[in-house]
Amino acid sequence: MLKEIALGALVSLSPLEKKALDNFQTRLGEEQINYTDTTKYVYTKKDSIQLVAIESLTPTEKRALDNFQKRLEREGYDISQYLEDPRFGIRRFEKGKKQTDYTNINESWYLNPDSIKTCIPFMEDNLYWLKKVQGEHGISPEHMASLLQLETRCGKYTGVYPSIVAFASVYIDRPDRRTEYLGYAKDFFNLFTDTTDNILLPRDIFNIEMSYAGAYGISQGIPPMIIKHGPKADGDGDGVVNLMKTADAIKFAALLLDEEFEYRENPTRAIRRYNGGHEFYGRAIIMHADSLRKIWEMKKREPINKISNYPNTPHILKPIETKNLHYMKRDIPQLPQKQVFLKRIFTNNKSRKKTSNN
After folding, report:
1. Three-point CA angle 191, 314, 258, nearest 5°
2. Planar angle of CA 75, 81, 225, nearest 5 degrees
3. What is the C-alpha separation between 172 and 197, in angstroms, rounded?
4. Percentage of the chain exceeding pLDDT 70
5. pLDDT of residue 69
6. Which regions of the chain carry the CATH code 1.10.530?
7. CATH code given to domain 99-158+217-335
8. Using DSSP, how many helices (H) and how many strands (E) does the chain show?
9. How far is Cα 139 from Cα 271, in angstroms, rounded to an integer?
10. Predicted confidence band of residue 337 (pLDDT cuts 50, 70, 90)
11. Helical H segments across 256-336, by residue range
12. Which of 126-130, 195-199, 244-248, 283-287 shows the lowest per-residue confidence on average (mean pLDDT)?
């Protein structure tokens, strides 16, 4: 039998009830949702930056969002279901914010000694993949580690903004970049809806979390670059590309640096172009990589650019579980690479025996 519950003001709650309510609010905070404003729904992400609900946008912002939606509709992309989703909101950017100079240790965390030292365990754990792309694309391990450290702290912070939120927010905030971000949105929707390629993405568009500028994954790829180089970025050879996985992210970044930005001709220029050509960005990564190489060689007592004597095999590849996978279903191989290899040897041995018997 249903119990009728009387709703009272917060001041009328007993100490036990207040404690339970505090616990409820804390647990909601852990789930990244803020219900403190009862007049509208506001979705709060991991970094505590609030997204503004549509009904709270200014008239100018609403007109820009309507323009974004209509331009996509004319191209055949219907985003109405995402705009109606209670998780949708707009990020308001801080006006007049100065670009961070990553070469300045007083202004940025990046060249701090701790930032450089934390790359050593990352390089140790992923030495096979780093050396592999060095052999295939010429990217030095210290350049790759330093680049990923600046992009996502080697995968620790890959972005907190749902993809549709990132594209719409920049479109509203930057009139000068609207055509560019409309293109990003279209490329992204093509990626999201294409189930014939080998690129894994979460099923729920709001679970595809990006940087505020719309870059995805450990190596922060933008949609047009993912379309162009993503299918070739199967770094660990498991048949699929998951840019939230280190081996594939390293391969993707190597493809961009080598094939898109001509790393072999000019490493410094290629690294600078990886993030839109910002001078501070390229210089900071080179400085970080130089320090990282010195620490590595002092610790390991061997040159980091030596391709020989690296592990012959990576960690054992595990088959991808599809029954509980929250990713889009793709053409996932039934057998992991190692089993396929063993099966091939077994088949060849069988055929040899038949030949010898004849």
Report:
1. 50
2. 50
3. 31
4. 72
5. 97
6. 99-158+217-335
7. 1.10.530
8. 14, 4
9. 10
10. very low
11. 267-274, 279-300
12. 195-199
